[in-house]
Amino acid sequence: MAVKAVNLGFQFPSTPSSFGSSSSPKLRKDRLVFRSTKVEQISFTESENSLIEALLGIQGRGRSSSPNQLNAVERAVQVLESLGGVPDPTKSNLIEGRWQLIFTTRPGTASPIQRTFVGVDFFSVFQEVYLQTNDPRVCNIVSFSDAIGELKVEAAASIQDGKRILFRFDRAAFSFRFLPFKVPYPVPFRLLGDEAKGWLDTTYLSHSGNLRISRGNKGTTFVLQKQTEPRQRLLTAVSSGRDVKEAIDEFISLNRNNGEKEPELEEGEWQMLWNSQTVTDSWIENAANGLMGKQIIGKNGRIKFVVDILLGLRFSMTGNFVKTGTKMYDVTMDDAAIIGGPFGYPMQMENKFTLELLYSDEKIRISRGYNEILFVHTRTDSSRKN
């Protein structure tokens, strides 16, 4: 039986191909966008921020994303690659260090290990790059959790030119917290020949040293960061399902009294990512209480809950909201139906609750609604006016 090599953050070469022009793109000035709080400040250029915005809400580091989301990411990546970033990134000390994998265009391809780990939000995936040493190496790391441990896959590396790193995988091991020794990963790299080799082009490295775009020899695009901004950390907690309430409390605390204007319920489609409900009622009650599906905020105080059921059927419930105070809204939902194509089956339902808007921007909304349940929504349309 053939043994497949591990591929985490790189692709192994099949037919080498090049990406774009080797000439240096023309640089232009780009406005800085600051994400600041009392305890930290992360700066991105306007174009870098467009990529960060496009990545917010994408699950599984790209595994679960809509065509519109993928297109937005690809456009933002292409803009940054055309700008160029740091010249000759492989020769810059900014590329050195530990990078977190945020997004990859092909998380469902390559080795079974990559398919298993990279698309799972519960795990964190990192890449360490150390080129300016006597033993240049690039390492891919899957962190299962602080309590369990990690898998580290190492490759000997060399610099081919200002953008390209050549590598050959040569060792890998599991480090479990509950064992005093490492467990070798059972892949005979020496027997794999060229299958253990590959290359990685860095097509964009930010001047802050915090954002990197790389492309592998099988056409995969990777987006990595050294530091993630608070919204990214919140959504990571939501995706993994770990310590979400704590992450929400920290996020709201960081953004309290930051001088921004009072948040409003913005028009658009908002997908529910998480809620704090622990007791599950029937699905129809969950749908009527906004515990699943989408929430659509319309004009003139109109609101709608929409839940896809199956076979083209969906639950729809509309109502009104009225602002009653700072960040507070009274919501009345009173027009429910099961919709199938042009037909609808009306349902006699009514639901009234108070909605407290804890945080809202153009991409993320945190609120407290029915029965004091916390909600995290992310915008899924582009209706916001700039």
UniProtKB/TrEMBL annotation:
Among the Pfam families in the record, one is: PAP_fibrillin
Q: Which residues form the Plastid lipid-associated protein/fibrillin conserved domain?
A: 48-224
Q: Which InterPro entries match?
A: PAP, PAP/fibrillin_dom
The highest taxon in the source lineage is Eukaryota
Q: What is its main location?
A: plastid
Q: Any idea which UniProt keywords this protein has?
A: Plastid, Transit peptide
* Entry keyword annotation includes Transit peptide: yes
**Which subcellular locations apply to this protein?**
Plastid
What family is this protein classified in? Belongs to the PAP/fibrillin family.
Name-wise, this protein is Plastid-lipid-associated protein 12, chloroplastic
**Which species is listed as the source?**
Stylosanthes scabra
Give the classification, highest ranks.
Eukaryota, Viridiplantae, Streptophyta, Embryophyta, Tracheophyta
Q: Which gene encodes it?
A: PAP12
